[in-house]
């Protein structure tokens, strides 16, 4: 089950920029009431917070109970035991997706500790401790709200190298999707051109050209021909004939440094 299924309508989910701040500053910006959930990612050290905006929390409750209202009133009270159980269903779905996201870094298990509505009772870290905050903005037709994760910097410190890496070596790969993508890429057509040579002439010379005139290029007949792939110099070759057609025999693949030199000289 996904969040859109619970809410019974299409939603837009946007990733929010990651930032760091002091834990006390993070708590001070959380209004009352808010659906705050304290959890632990085992085997990581320390506790973390999952924060669901009250607008979203009451909307989840409304939809679980069969309501269809687009605008939900946020009540300044604690959640009832029934409401807490309903919100816990959403939390479990989020935890399940969170475990999947961590799978490429280190296998974790999200252990639920307790829920709060007042941030003053969610002081699981020292006030001056640095935390990393990330999350998502959930947009519906009539309302929007945030789902945030707050981690202690000390919790993530042992895995910073893996977290900084743009790709994870243990990432799961859908083989069918990969083969389909390979077929699509390998069947793509590209522009391949060979430059026999270049020269610079004046506009007057150009205007005076006649049939039979000879244009002298900057290359000697024995020099290799530059081969371009989509306008980028990639190879050098030897001009010749193959099956009664002009052809080029590849003699060398250019290094990145040689490519840059060719680009600058063109």
TrEMBL record:
Name of the protein: Flagellar motor switch protein FliM
Membrane topology per record: Peripheral membrane protein
Family statement: Belongs to the FliM family.
Keyword field contains Cell membrane: yes
Transmembrane regions: none
Domain Flagellar motor switch protein FliN-like C-terminal: 186-254
Gene Ontology cellular-component annotations: bacterial-type flagellum basal body; plasma membrane
Keywords: Bacterial flagellum, Cell membrane, Cell projection, Chemotaxis, Cilium, Flagellar rotation, Flagellum, Membrane
Compartments in which it is found: Bacterial flagellum basal body; Cell membrane
Function: FliM is one of three proteins (FliG, FliN, FliM) that forms the rotor-mounted switch complex (C ring), located at the base of the basal body. This complex interacts with the CheY and CheZ chemotaxis proteins, in addition to contacting components of the motor that determine the direction of flagellar rotation.
BP GO annotations: bacterial-type flagellum-dependent swarming motility; positive chemotaxis
GO molecular function: cytoskeletal motor activity
Listed InterPro entries: CheC-like_sf (IPR028976), Flag_FliM (IPR001689), FliN-like_C (IPR001543), SpoA-like_sf (IPR036429)
Chief site of localization: other
Domain of life: Bacteria
Gene3D superfamilies the UniProt entry points to: CheC-like, SpoA-like
């Amino acid at each position: 089950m996904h969040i859109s299924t619970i809410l019974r309508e299409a939603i837009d989910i946007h990733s929010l920029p990651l930032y760091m701040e002091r834990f006390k500053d993070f708590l001070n910006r959380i209004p009352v009431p808010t659906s705050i959930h304290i959890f632990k990612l085992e085997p990581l050290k320390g506790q973390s917070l999952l924060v669901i905006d009250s607008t979203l929390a009451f909307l989840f409750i409304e939809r679980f109970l069969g309501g269809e209202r687009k605008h939900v009133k946020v009540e300044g009270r604690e959640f009832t035991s029934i409401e807490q159980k309903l919100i816990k269903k959403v939390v479990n779905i989020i935890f399940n997706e969170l475990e999947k996201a961590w799978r490429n870094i280190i296998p974790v298990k999200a252990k639920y500790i307790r829920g709060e509505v007042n941030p003053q009772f969610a002081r699981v870290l020292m006030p001056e401790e640095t935390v990393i905050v990330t999350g998502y903005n959930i947009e519906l037709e009539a309302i929007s709200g945030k789902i945030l994760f707050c981690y202690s910097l000390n919790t993530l410190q042992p895995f910073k190298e893996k977290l900084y890496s743009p790709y994870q070596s243990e990432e799961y790969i859908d083989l069918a999707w990969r083969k389909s993508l390979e077929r699509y890429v390998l069947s793509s057509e590209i522009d391949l051109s060979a430059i026999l040579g270049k020269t610079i002439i004046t506009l007057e010379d150009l205007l005076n050209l006649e049939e039979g005139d000879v244009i002298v290029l900057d290359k000697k007949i024995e020099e290799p021909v530059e081969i371009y792939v989509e306008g980028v110099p990639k190879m050098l070759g030897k001009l010749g004939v193959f099956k009664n057609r002009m052809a080029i025999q590849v003699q060398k693949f250019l290094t990145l440094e040689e490519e840059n030199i060719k680009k600058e000289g063109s």
